[in-house]
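Q: Structure tokens for this one, please.
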Amino acid sequence: MIAAVFNTVLGAVDDDEVGSASGVLSAVQSIGGSVGVAVFSTVFFAGAFTGQVAESFRDALVVQAIVIALFLLISPLFPRRARPDETDVAAGTTPADSVDARF
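A: Here is the predicted structure, written as tokens:
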């Protein structure tokens, strides 16, 4: 999932802005990881402090499974290629057209 997002985002910017886009994307990925750890640990420790460690661990895993399922549902919406190939340019299609061709 992360590779597809990186490919899509970096392919959508101009060549002279790829360095800046990569830095912003890396920062957003770090923030997202921190928020994920905070959410999962909040779910876990909410019950662990009451002595229900096994149930808290299960609850944190359920939240992770839900998040993964949501990302799996939206992942087909990403284009296969971020930039058009030479064959796409010659045919006059765009990467978005390639997404519609899969369905």
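A few notes: Residues 18-48 form the longest helix (31 residues). Residues 80 and 99 are 6 Å apart (CA to CA).
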